[in-house]
Amino acid sequence: MTPFVLASQSAARRRMLGAAGLSFEVQPASIDESTLIEGLIAEGHGGRNIADCLAEMKARRVSDNLPVSWVVGSDQVLSLGSDIFEKPGSLAMAREHLVRLRGKTHVLHSAACVARGGSVVWRHVAEARMTMRAFSDDFLDDYLAGAGPDIVNSVGAYHVEGRGIQLFSRIEGDLFTVQGFPLLPFLDFLRVQGVVRG
Description:
The protein is of the alpha/beta class. The chain is built from 7 helices and 7 strands, in the order βαβααββαββαβαα.
């Protein structure tokens, strides 16, 4: 198995790829995501394109310094209609996000992009439709008190593998997409390229 480079600091992606039995190194890309997202929104891009652009930027940035390595960049964007959500960063903002999402269906766009020698050789964006229940304020307060501080680093302020699953009445899409990485298409790419055995 040939190791590849993951241009992401996401602990969830590291766990997912490691659990799949993949060998990889981690070298997070240094980019200003908030500024990039603001610029892309100003240009009229939607969630799918924003996730794709961020994944590409990460892959290219690291690949420029590692020309012979397979480098995968990845990102996830949450869209509610034309509104784009970023990671809340605080419990107060997480509460605000969840109030806005309550009783509605939002979309998670999970993108991956592979670069080699600074050029993109593969990309994929998967989507999951997430319908939240019209939960009560009391439930929301209880959820925020028990979910733990890590939810502020999740774009939707939830982890469906934990208490966050109770926020939802319906999920359309695979678990890997919900967790932020289109794993099955990526594994297909690695097999085609001979990076992992078929």
